[in-house]
């Protein structure tokens, strides 16, 4: 996400980050590079030009040139303007109404049906709602099937009527069904087209007028860049939607849509899709996104994801096992599963300040834990609870069974042993001792 833009902005601001003399000339040169980086990322030229003009005006007005750390101040100005450009404040979702009605709109292929499922899952797990998904795409039977598959996956009921060909009638029936069956949120997945056309706009406008939704959301594929912004404008002119959903932000995207869509349609980005899993949905925080674009990481989101997967009861059991020296490979496997639930590995690394830059050329596969899991699954229950029994012949068998080598098995055993010792040290009064050891190593 934003890798190319982050690189180019970093290079553009590099001169000012140094301690050399900063002049009005190199501020102008730097901002010219910033503008070029934004345009390359598919940000509309007019928006990029206005952005750099505002930053320049503020930089010269705030005595950046004579400040002690002009580079840092300049980066802050760029960040503040980026935050403003992307909407400033985080925009919440309107869940008033009984039930709350959310109408999803967008072109075919934008990820609308998948995102309807992600949103339903988010509202079910994070907001303790009882959502109902409604299939209103009467043109593609596959779209109805897809929504049912998604609903089954997340344990959310799907309302569909394959005999009815009028999407307004389907949505009205779905509302009546939701009221009768205690669903407090109704998410209506509408038909998309390959391009904006009059028939599509009339249809979604009719649904909108009939059901009067609390939220009308426009789902857009961020990988389509400037086209996405233009499509959003066409939809907004007809629907006057409440917010934007950006999907496929985990792809090799230039990010221009995320940066410029708010200033074109004057509607906030409410959520972003960051992967294929049903949990890969994030509330859009302009400030956190600006930090990531400028390579500053996003520790808050990383901590939030970790907390989402934190199980207090499991943590207590784990603590007892560590104290009794009973931490085994089954426990290790559980820890791996929790990390995997946090999301795409490359995305997680990008949230650590500086790490994204350091590891940009390293391909972090989502299957990074695959060989570790295979090795553990090839162990007997005894070997998992008492790794000390694993001798040379057992290592050979485990390697063969997991499709790995004895070297990899040895490596895992060594890492596991080191981790167990460290955890044991952290548990006891060894926290201070560990700090002393680390100081001694410096």
UniProtKB/TrEMBL annotation:
- The record's EC number reads 3.6.5.4
Query: SMART domains, per this entry?
Result: AAA (SM00382), SRP54 (SM00962), SRP54_N (SM00963)
User: ATP-binding: is it a keyword of this entry?
Assistant: no
Return the InterPro entries for the record.
AAA+_ATPase (IPR003593), P-loop_NTPase (IPR027417), Signal_recog_part_SRP54_M_sf (IPR036891), Signal_recog_particl_SRP54_hlx (IPR013822), Signal_recog_particle_SRP54_M (IPR004125), SRP (IPR004780), SRP54 (IPR022941), SRP54_GTPase_dom (IPR000897)
Domain (SRP54-type proteins GTP-binding) ranges: 268-281
What GO molecular function annotation could you give as one example from this UniProt entry? 7S RNA binding
Q: Where in the cell is it found?
A: Cytoplasm
* Gene Ontology CC annotations of this record: signal recognition particle
Gene Ontology terms describing biological process? SRP-dependent cotranslational protein targeting to membrane
Annotated keywords: Cytoplasm, GTP-binding, Hydrolase, Nucleotide-binding, Ribonucleoprotein, RNA-binding, Signal recognition particle
Sites binding GTP sit at 106-113, 189-193, 247-250
Pfam families attached here?
SRP54, SRP54_N, SRP_SPB
The answer on whether this UniProt entry bears the keyword Hydrolase reads yes
Enzyme's top EC category: hydrolase
Q: Which residues form the signal peptide?
A: none
Reaction catalysed by this enzyme: GTP + H2O = GDP + phosphate + H(+)
Q: What is known of its domains?
A: Composed of three domains: the N-terminal N domain, which is responsible for interactions with the ribosome, the central G domain, which binds GTP, and the C-terminal M domain, which binds the RNA and the signal sequence of the RNC.
Q: Which family does it belong to?
A: Belongs to the GTP-binding SRP family. SRP54 subfamily.
Q: How does it assemble?
A: Part of the signal recognition particle protein translocation system, which is composed of SRP and FtsY.
What is the role of this chain? Involved in targeting and insertion of nascent membrane proteins into the cytoplasmic membrane. Binds to the hydrophobic signal sequence of the ribosome-nascent chain (RNC) as it emerges from the ribosomes. The SRP-RNC complex is then targeted to the cytoplasmic membrane where it interacts with the SRP receptor FtsY.
Protein name, UniProt field: Signal recognition particle protein
State the organism of origin.
Answer: Mesonia algae
Lineage, uppermost ranks: Bacteria, Pseudomonadati, Bacteroidota, Flavobacteriia, Flavobacteriales
